[in-house]
Amino acid sequence: MMLKQKEGWIEVITGPMFAGKTEELIRRIRRLEYAKRNIVVFKPQLDNRFAEGEVVSHNKTKTKSINITKSKEMFLHVTPETDVIAVDEIQFLDEEAVKVVQYFADNGKRVIVSGLDNDFRAEPFSFMPQLLSMAEYVTKLSAVCVKCGSPATRTQRIVDGKPAKYHDPIVLIGAEESYEARCRRCHKVYRKPKPYKGKI
Ligand SMILES: [Zn+2]
Predict the structure, then answer these.
(1) How many whole angstroms from 127 Cα to the centroid of ligand 1?
(2) Is residue 136 annotated as part of the catalytic site, yes or no?
(3) For residue range 116-143, what is the model confidence (pLDDT) as tens digits?
(4) Distance 141 CA to ligand 1 centre (A)
C-alpha cells in the first residue's frame, strides 16, 4: 500500500455564475475518486435546483452529496478516515463555514469548495473574501459575457427584462432566465438617483 501523502489545505473555485465552478469541483472529485480517496461532498440545503442529495453542474454532470442547512453539520459526516471534503455553493452557508473549513484543513483534510465571489451588485459575497484569503489555492474562473463576448467576471441579475436595482434582495439560486454572465463594462446595477440638493 502507498503511504498517505501529508495533506491539509483549502482550495477555492470561484467566479461568476455560468463559469463552470461546479463542473470544476466535480472534475476534481472524480479524479480523487479514481485515486481511491475517501471523499464527503456537501451542499447547502436551499439549493434544490436539480436534485436532492446531488451536486449538479449546468452541463448536467453530477455527484452524490449530503445536503446541510448549517455548516456545523459537516462534523457529523466527517470521520478520521475522510481525506477530502468538498462543498458546492459554499457562499450560501452561514459564516461559521469559515471556521469549520479552517479546522478541517488544520487537521489534515483537503478541503475543496466552490462559490460565487461577488453578488449581483459586483460586491463581495458574504464571507467569500475570508475564504479566498485563507485558501492555499484559488481558481478564479470566468464565463463569457452574453453582451459582447469578453470574459465575464460578474453576474448580471435581470428582473422583468431590466437590470436589477441595487436594493433588490440577494437571492441567486438557479433561475437562469434571471441571471447572465457579463463583463465589467456590460454589467449594470440600477441605483436610485440621489435627490437634487441644490437650488432650483
Ligand atoms: Zn461585455
Answers:
(1) 27
(2) no
(3) 999 999 999 999 999 999 999 999 999 9
(4) 16
Considering 11, 23, 24, 89, which one is annotated as catalytic?
89
In a domain, 104, yes or no: yes
What integer is the mean pLDDT of 154-163?
89
Average pLDDT over residues 70-86: 96
Residue 172 pLDDT exceeds 90: no
Size of the chain in residues = 200
Domain that holds residue 40: 9-141
CATH of the domain at 24: 3.40.50.300
DSSP string covering 85-132, please? EEESSGGGS-TTHHHHHHHHHHTT-EEEEEEESB-TTSSB-TTHHHHH
> How far does residue 184's CA lie from ligand 1's centre (Å)?
7
